[in-house]
Amino acid sequence: MCRLFALTSTEPVSPMRAVRALDVMREGHDGSGVGLFLTGLGGPLGALADCPILSGILTSEGERRLNQFMDDKGFTLRHRLSWNLPATPPPGTPRRGLYLVAAYEPPDRWRALPPAERELNILRTRLELKHMGLEREDITVFSFWPDVVMLKEIGDPLAVGRYLDVDREDLHARQILAQGRQNTNYAINLYACHPFFIQGICTMTNGENTAFVPIKDWLTACGVPGYEGYHSDSEVFTHILHYAVRRLGLPLAAYKHVITPLPDADMRSHPDAAFLEQLKAACRKLIIDGPNCVIGCLPDRTMFMVQDSKKLRPGVVGGRPGLYAFSSEICGLDAAIPERDKTRDFQPMHLDTAIVGPGCEEIEICRQTQPLPQAR
Amino acid sequence: MPSNAAIAPSTLSHVDLPWRIDWTGDKCTLCGQCVAVCPVRAIELGVFRKREIKASFGLSTTSENQYSVRYGIRQKTDPGFACIGCGMCDMVCPGDAITPRRNDEQPKLRMHANKGGAPRTRGGRRNDRGSLLDQIKFVRISMLTDPALDAGRHEFDLTTMIGRILPPETALETLRNQGWMPPVRKIYPLLIGGMSFGALSPNMWEGLQMGVAYLNEELHMPVRMCTGEGGCPPRLLRSRFLKYVILQIASGYFGWDEIIHALPEMKEDPCAVEIKYGQGAKPGDGGLLMWHKVNKLIAAIRGVPVGVSLPSPTTHQTKYSIEEAVAKMIQSMSMAWGFRVPVYPKISATTTSLAVLNNLARNKYAAGLAIDGEDGGTGAAYNVSMDHMGHPIASNIRDCYLNLCRIGAQNELPLIAGGGVGKNGNLAANAAALIMLGASAVQVGKYIMQAAAGCVGSEGDRCNVCNIGVCPKGITSQDPRLYRRLDPEKVAGRVVEVFLAFDSEMKKILAPLGRSTSLPIGMSDALGIGDKNAADRLSIRYCV
Question: What is the CATH number of domain A3-367?
Answer without folding.
Answer: 3.60.20.10
